[in-house]
Amino acid sequence: MLTGNRGEWSEIYAFFKVLLDREIHTKDNKKYPILSIRRMDADGGTTYRILQNDQFEVKSPHSFESKIISLPDLRSSVSKIFSEIEIASWHAFELPSAIKLMEDLGCRQIKSSSRNKNDLVLTTHEGADNREIELWFSIKSSIWSAPTLLNPSSHTNFVFHILWIEKWILDNLSTRKEMKAGALVKTIYDFGWYLVYDKPKSVVFNENLMTSDSGLPIIIPEILITYYRWLGRKTSEIVEKTFEHSDRVFDLWMNVQQVEYKLKNFLENVALWMTPSKRWSGKDETEWGYLIVGADGKIICLHKYWRDLFKDYLFDNTAFDTPSTSRYDYWKIYMNSDNQHCVDLNLQIRFVK
Description:
The chain is an alpha+beta fold. The protein is built from eleven helices and 16 strands. It folds into two domains: 6-145, no CATH class; 150-281 and 319-351, no CATH class. It has helices at residues 6-21, 74-86, 96-105, 167-175, 181-190, 203-212, 216-228, 235-245, 256-272, 307-316, 325-328, and strands spanning 23-25, 31-39, 46-50, 55-59, 66-70, 120-126, 131-141, 148-150, 157-163, 194-200, 288-293, 299-303, 318-320, 334-335, 341-346, 349-351. Strand 1 and strand 2 form a beta hairpin.
């Protein structure tokens, strides 16, 4: 029997739900009919063409012939699968109702091939001429917890100097191993000391930030300070908070709207192309987006094809987060080679539920 975790079962649920709905919904509530769906696998993917009533034409790369299948109980099956995922544990589990539907549809795997960044390819109509377009999607699920947009790693650490800190408070902070990263930074500022950005831990990520926008290597660290001071979390709110509390970042002769614009582009770059550990050329090389499975089971379509909607959604529905301090080796106070007190802060961005 196949087993999977909640994220993996959410991926097959999204496929079933799109089949059931026979349309996709963008953030501005526009609807686009689905003509066919290709679910990606190692062999290129099985295609499901939407027919009338409860019928679908299935064309597998393993067969020269297509077949017609009828799924009159699809709605009740999809509803049951969603309910079972909602109450499932963290661990891998069986989902017999989903496996039965997979068998009916000829699905061999719970999740798409790891070699594909895209999970589903949808064909729909768009425009005044009603032309067919093909849209590629990766699936993100927030059925149980909010998915990440920018994953934390050693490449997302940034180095800060602690200015004017006194030895007695330094000794006190250094011995309080239970203190969380946010509490540490907030305490530093509560005592009248503050952080000054020094450098990124990752040269590659810094180059990628520069490629995205030359202001980001200053903007991102200052926003990180705002977040770790517990002054803001949501991306849509944290820019104004940074303007209120930062003495440095916005000596760049930029206003709030300009910084928000740069952040929206950064979020889009992270979503579609850029990773912290791999050098990015800045080229617009992909034509894909996200299908977001909401906590209510509904699916929102985000795609580069509707670019402004995509960027606005990322900006309004993401937040900064605190990853594991031990796993990513940050927040501890240390001395650098110039005998300056330093602390590293880590960047993680997550969708909000």
